[in-house]
From TrEMBL:
Its EC number is 3.4.21.84. Keywords: Disulfide bond, Hemolymph clotting, Hydrolase, Protease, Serine protease, Signal, Sushi. GO terms for molecular function: serine-type endopeptidase activity. Gene3D superfamilies: Trypsin-like serine proteases (2.40.10.10). This is limulus clotting factor C. CDD domains: Tryp_SPc. GO terms for biological process: hemolymph coagulation; proteolysis. It is an enzyme of class 3 (hydrolase).
Length: 306
């Protein structure tokens, strides 16, 4: 079995957007407002998470357009823009990510529709005439970081990014589904799917092509908590999900903000995001910890605008 520690490439990447002189505004999140009646309308209904379900063993290249909701966050670099975090497109204007991704450094644009980084055109390896449309780069209007995010305890690691312009949905750019129904919120998959641009082995060569892997769920919070007892600051609670095993497939440095998900029944089989990559002890060194999206659905919609 091939082991994979997904690692976003941290190099300089070509981009048509100019680096701005001013930083993107970062707002503190609002508390949930139960009087709002337009909340669910802000998230896509049936038009999300379209997914062809395949069994994944270990780490392998993802198919072109298999994860069309993945986003790369672009930051200022010494020689141009570079990417350090991921996110997921949740509607035509918003990307869901981790609070850590808009904390120390501030992204200024989002790239959607990427498959192989640094390649001008993404095409099917078995058919050179079957190519995806170009990537879409969008400036960020502002970001909203959870008002109670704590860098030491790793609590409330969630944020929203609002794009200056709406994204045009195409085959390679589509929104992901969130666990908005009671049934989905209470769903506990035995395994999850992770995806990112990275290494096919923990100490192997970096792959510029999108990778995917399956990781087992770790439902026992006490087992997950034991991984972090030495820190004395981290408490695993119902705002977290744990997944992965020592030496197995895992997310890694640079994957913060990316999705943990799995296909579920939602008007057909849809890919649903259950977690946001948050932290761990290191690449493939025991379970990694993810923000539990189901616990933050009300916060997400409370901090979105039409």
């Amino acid at each position: 079995m091939v082991k994979m520690a997904v690692l976003i490439i941290l190099g300089v990447l070509q981009c048509t957007l100019q680096q701005p002189n001013e930083q993107v505004p970062i707002k503190q999140g609002n508390e949930v407002d139960p009087t709002r009646e337009d909340l669910q309308d802000l998230l896509p209904g049936n038009e999300c998470g379209h997914y062809v379900q395949n069994r994944i063993i270990g780490g392998q290249n993802a198919s072109m357009m298999e994860f069309p909701w993945l986003a790369l966050l672009g930051y200022r670099g010494p020689h141009g823009p570079d990417f350090h975090c991921m996110g997921t497109l949740i509607n035509a204007r918003y990307v869901l990510t981790g609070a850590t991704c808009v904390y120390a450094r501030k992204p200024y644009f989002v790239r959607l529709g990427e498959h192989t980084i640094g390649q001008d055109k993404d095409c099917n390896v078995n058919d050179a005439s079957d190519c995806a449309p170009p990537v879409q780069d969008r400036d960020i209007e502002y970001a909203v970081r959870h008002q109670s995010y704590d860098t030491r305890s790793k609590q409330n690691d969630i944020a929203l990014i609002r794009l200056k312009e709406e994204i045009t949905f195409e085959d390679h750019i589509q929104p992901i589904c969130l666990p908005v129904t009671t049934e989905l919120r209470n769903n506990n998959p035995a395994e999850y799917i992770i995806a990112g641009w990275g290494k096919t082995e923990q100490f192997g060569e970096i792959s510029e092509t999108l990778q995917k892997a399956t990781v087992p769920a770790v439902p026992d919070r006490d087992e997950c908590q034991r991984q972090f007892e030495a820190s004395g600051r981290i408490t695993i609670n119902d705002g977290h999900l744990c997944a992965g095993v020592d030496g197995g497939a895992d997310t890694c440095n640079g994957d913060s903000g990316g999705p943990l998900g799995y296909p579920a029944q939602l008007n057909g089989i849809r890919f649903v995001q259950y977690g946001i990559v948050s932290f761990g002890r290191g690449c493939a060194r025991g379970p990694s910890v993810y923000t539990n999206v189901a616990k933050y659905i009300d916060w997400i919609v409370a901090n979105m605008e039409p």
